[in-house]
Design a protein that fits this description.
46 residues
Length: 46
């Protein structure tokens, strides 16, 4: 059975994968901010 990868832009799977990637990036950024809170606070107060 042949697949048609890349032939359809904006497929439901692509949208779901984009949402998952966006959520992962946000979680990693939030974790990084929490782990390095003192550095972020020092930079903010400069």
């Amino acid at each position: 059975m042949a697949t048609e990868e890349g032939s359809e832009s904006g497929s439901p799977l692509d949208e779901v994968m984009d949402d998952i990637r966006r959520e992962l990036v946000q979680r990693v950024a939030a974790t990084d901010r929490d782990a390095n809170r003192d550095i972020y606070d020092a930079l903010e107060n400069e």
